[in-house]
């Protein structure tokens, strides 16, 4: 009786488990004569010999042998089942701007089982083929253009490229000028599990882009839209509809919002919101109960008609969990501050009200009476004086760590020194353009002042220039940019690592003393050459002075101590005689 040739029992290739088969790409992994895997196998059966007539001793064979004279036909065994490996999400980051950037990964375990397998992927089945695990590691480091190009090489590379896109959770793309929306949509469709999206647009944007993002990214958690010499034509209704539909969205940042008009944002998941270039908004409603961080930058045009008082009042009522508030507008007034303090936001930790020239010391008193646990206070561009700084120091002596008072013309060096002395936990202080010469930017007035200085030497300097002395144990960053009225500076800050002295044009090199051993960077753009040289001499020292730890010994009569020669002194231990190196500091003048 001639027996049926059963299907040999073979091991399923790992490539068939991971990469779906699209047509036959290579032969079987098992020997056609005996059913043993081909790798390292030399078959002992003749080419024309049927393995049924000579049963193989292979334990994997499913044939049941009958008496030697009779071979009973057996039904073919069931096909081996394919076990699909679990798909592990990857935190990949693509950046189309710089091709040298490579995407990272938070999980390297998806292909850990491939190291011992013989699955090869490449343009051929022999020389040049790579294991799937190696190909995955190479492809996940490619930028999007190279990843798209590699998908055209062969089917194996195309499938690996498809899996890379599918596992991506973060994507950063630059959309060039005149780019079609279909191009962006085709890229987003490759990433169904995308969580974080950042778009840098060099072409105009409208609601079509939002619809494409909403359709292609159902799991989107964070979206950032940056404008680069382009126009944002999205309206307030379109943005509100997008936010309401994306129930997983927690972080939204958008630039170029001048065409929003009135809008209403309703979301229970949104926790961080940043909108810039806002202009003339008739209605701004924020119905976001879980919103914690809000940043609103308005246009610097004087004819802006946005009612900030009404907007802040509604923001405080509908967003009770706010912790960080940043508002930059030239229409900030004391009334806006009163509306904010009336909201009684108990969790507020950071408050930034920038460019409000009508914010005065009375506004500081209102802030201090309502929010006594602030960690950051930014009143840059306001009209507060040294008295307002005194109130800040009295209310926030233990909590305040960041104080920004740039562009405040009524503040003097005395107020800055008082703040440094009364705020022990201060780590950052920005006092740019506070101690400035008001006539420095006027060429005609400057020429008249030069003539007056020549006629009456040193008489004008004592009226304008000020000195600043700061001694602080925790201060790490100090900014004095644009302080053209400063001619003497003495700093004793052991933790200071960043100092900004840009445009301190009248700072006298002979009246500069920096005792900051941890200083790493000094900005000196627009300073005198003599000042730059003094800075380099004081901060760019490779090594600190080392104390003399040589051993001393008294004479036999105990009358005098003398140094013991190194030959007779014991070997130094620990780190006493080692030179203590200092961080090299960089002076930036460009």
UniProtKB/TrEMBL annotation:
Superkingdom as given in the UniProt entry: Eukaryota
Pfam families: F-box-like
Gene3D superfamilies: 1.20.1280.50, Ribonuclease Inhibitor (3.80.10.10)
Stretches assigned to the F-box domain: 124-168
InterPro entries: F-box-like_dom_sf (IPR036047), F-box_dom (IPR001810), F-box_LRR-repeat (IPR050648), LRR_dom_sf (IPR032675)
Region Disordered, annotated ranges: 1-30, 44-83, 96-117
Compositionally biased tracts (Low complexity): 48-72
The protein's name in its UniProt record: F-box domain-containing protein
Source organism (scientific name): Solanum stoloniferum
Classification of source organism: Eukaryota, Viridiplantae, Streptophyta, Embryophyta, Tracheophyta
């Amino acid at each position: 009786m001639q027996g049926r040739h059963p299907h040999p029992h073979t091991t399923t290739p790992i490539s068939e488990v991971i990469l779906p088969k699209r047509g036959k790409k290579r032969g079987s992994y098992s020997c056609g004569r005996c059913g043993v895997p081909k790798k390292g196998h030399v078959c002992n059966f003749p080419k024309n010999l049927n393995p049924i007539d000579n049963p193989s001793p292979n334990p994997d064979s499913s044939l049941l042998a009958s008496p030697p004279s009779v071979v009973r036909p057996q039904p073919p065994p069931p096909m081996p089942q394919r076990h699909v490996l679990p798909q592990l999400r990857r935190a990949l980051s693509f950046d189309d701007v710089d091709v040298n950037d490579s995407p990272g990964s938070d999980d390297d375990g998806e292909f850990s089982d491939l190291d011992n397998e013989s699955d090869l992927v490449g343009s051929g089945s022999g020389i040049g083929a790579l294991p799937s695990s190696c190909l995955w590691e190479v492809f996940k480091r490619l930028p999007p253009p190279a990843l798209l190009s590699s998908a055209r090489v062969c089917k194996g590379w195309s499938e690996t490229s498809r899996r890379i896109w599918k596992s991506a959770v973060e994507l950063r793309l630059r959309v060039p000028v005149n780019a079609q929306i279909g191009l962006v949509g085709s890229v987003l469709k490759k990433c169904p599990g995308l969580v974080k999206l950042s778009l840098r647009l060099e072409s105009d944007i409208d609601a079509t882009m939002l619809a494409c993002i909403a359709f292609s990214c159902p799991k989107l958690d964070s979206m950032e839209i940056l404008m680069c010499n382009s126009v944002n034509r999205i309206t307030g209704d379109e943005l509100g509809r997008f936010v309401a539909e994306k129930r997983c969205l927690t972080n939204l940042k958008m630039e170029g919002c001048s065409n929003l008009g009135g809008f209403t944002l309703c979301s229970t998941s949104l926790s961080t919101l940043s909108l810039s270039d806002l202009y003339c908004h008739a209605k701004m409603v924020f119905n976001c109960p879980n919103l914690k961080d809000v940043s609103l930058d308005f246009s610097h045009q004087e004819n802006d008609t946005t009612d900030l008082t009404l907007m802040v009042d509604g923001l405080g009522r509908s967003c009770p969990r706010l912790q960080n508030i940043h508002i930059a507008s030239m229409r900030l007034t004391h009334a806006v501050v009163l509306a904010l303090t009336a909201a009684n936001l108990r969790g507020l930790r950071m408050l930034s009200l920038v460019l409000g020239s009508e914010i005065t010391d009375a506004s500081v008193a209102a802030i201090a009476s309502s929010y006594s646990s602030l960690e950051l206070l930014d009143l840059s561009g306001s009209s507060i004086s040294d008295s307002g700084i005194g109130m800040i120091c009295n209310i926030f002596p233990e909590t305040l760590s960041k104080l920004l008072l740039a562009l405040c013309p009524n503040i003097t060096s005395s107020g800055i020194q008082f703040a440094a002395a009364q705020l022990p936990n201060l780590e950052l202080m920005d006092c740019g353009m506070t101690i400035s010469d008001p006539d420095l930017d006027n060429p005609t007035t400057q020429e008249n002042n030069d003539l007056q200085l020549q006629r009456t030497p040193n008489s004008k300097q004592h009226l304008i220039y000020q000195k600043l002395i700061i001694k602080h144990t925790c201060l790490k960053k100090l900014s004095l940019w644009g302080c053209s009225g400063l001619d003497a500076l003495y700093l004793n800050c052991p933790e200071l690592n960043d100092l900004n002295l840009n445009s301190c044009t009248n700072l006298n090199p002979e009246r500069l003393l920096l005792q900051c051993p941890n200083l790493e960077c000094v900005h000196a753009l627009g300073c005198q050459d003599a000042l730059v040289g003094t800075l380099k001499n004081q901060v760019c020292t490779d090594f600190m002075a080392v104390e003399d730890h040589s051993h001393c010994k008294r004479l036999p009569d105990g009358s005098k101590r003398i140094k013991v020669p190194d030959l007779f002194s014991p070997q130094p231990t620990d780190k006493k005689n080692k030179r203590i190196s200092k961080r090299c500091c960089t002076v930036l003048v460009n």
